[in-house]
Structure formats: C-alpha cells, structure tokens
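ugh ok so i messed up the first submission bc i forgot one of the chains. this is the corrected input, ALL of the components this time, i swear. 232 residues overall. if the numbers dont match what u have on ur side tell me asap before i send this to the collaborators (the ones from the other lab, u know who)
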Amino acid sequence: DAGVTQSPTHLIKTRGQQVTLRCSPKSGHDTVSWYQQALGQGPQFIFQYYEEEERQRGNFPDRFSGHQFPNYSSELNVNALLLGDSALYLCASSLVAGPNSPLHFGNGTRLTVT
Amino acid sequence: AQKVTQAQTEISVVEKEDVTLDCVYETRDTTYYLFWYKQPPSGELVFLIRRNSFDEQNEISGRYSWNFQKSTSSFNFTITASQVVDSAVYFCALSEAIGPSSASKIIFGSGTRLSIRP
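and heres the new structure output, hopefully the right one now
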C-alpha cells in the first residue's frame, strides 16, 4: 500500500521563477493538505483540497496556488519565488475532510531558492 | 488565536531514561483535536496519537504515554525507557473545525529535538 508520494525530492530555483510540486495521496485518501516547513520550525499550513476545491487556506500570499485532480492527486504552484520560500514542502493526505482525521505525510520536497 | 507552544527546543538523555515532552496549547474552541507527530531525519512526519477535547483519559501505547489536562491546556508526551531509535523531532499539533465544510488546518508547535545517547 503506497503512502503519500511527492516529487521531486529536491529542487533548486532562482528568485523570480515559478515552481510546481506534485503529490499523490495515500491509497483511499481523498483530501490533500500542503504545509511549508522552514528549517528548525514546525510545518505551517498552506491550504487543503477536498473534492477538487480549496477548502481552507493559511496565511500565505496568492503566489501560492494549488490544484486537485479527479484522481485526488495535487499540485502546489509557487510564482515569483522569493529567497524566503526556501523550505521543505510537505504534502499530507487523509480520508475525509475534517478536524479529527489524522494526516499521513510524504517525505517532502526540499526547495532551495537562490 | 490558536497556538501550540513547545518550550523545550532540545532534550538529550541517556538511553533507558524516561523523558517527557511538554506541550501547551491555546484555543477558544470547545471542540478541538490534539496530535503528536514524530519527524525522523528522513523528514517524513509520522502520526503518533490523536486526542479530542472531550476525552481526557490518559493513553498508553507501549513505551509511549500521553497526559491530557484541559485545566492547564497541556498535552504532554512521555517516553519510558528511551531508545536510540526514539531520536527525532517531535511535534505537538492542534486542529479545530472551521466553517460549515468542516475543513480544518493543523497548527504545529515548533518541535522538540530529542536525542537519545547510547
């Protein structure tokens, strides 16, 4: 049973560029959330997708956008990259949209912006 | 405002010692959920436990135990007879129901880095 898979594992981009990160949820899961984890910090919620709609959003600018596909996989897009966007981006999936559903996390994508 | 505080940034103990990781949370909601996650060096966050706000029973799972006290807004995590494999960063987290869609976001603390020395 495959868990949450993310690609790529590492990425280096230049300031001002755009990046797309991808996530496949754990088999049977229908909800995907994205988190940003800066070095030495806890993950911060970016947004959550359920039924192909953004259900909730954290305090991130519009440069961060996402999408969920009919097969429940998801993409995170970041435009006009800033040095401060360098972080580990974690994707998490769960079975239903709800506060008591434990998240299953992927290994993350390490994004470095130079 | 919702907030999770893990005051201990780093803890180092010798193998077989017991260790407690502290977690204090803030929320105005009456219904909420508390979690603990483990993050080994590989980076993946591993779910350990979920507790809802109406269940204050302590829980034990093998060498792990959790103490939930609403009166002090704390949800502490104890590892008994620690092992080197327990070395990781541990995160306490809080989630609430937001809006009619019941979508939620999880708020993580800043984590406690636990090192178990052989």
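quick check: The longest strand of chain B covers residues 88-96. that seems consistent at least. The interface with chain A takes residues 4, 31-33, 35, 37, 42-47, 50, 52, 91, 93, 95-99, 101-111 of chain B (CB under 8 Å).
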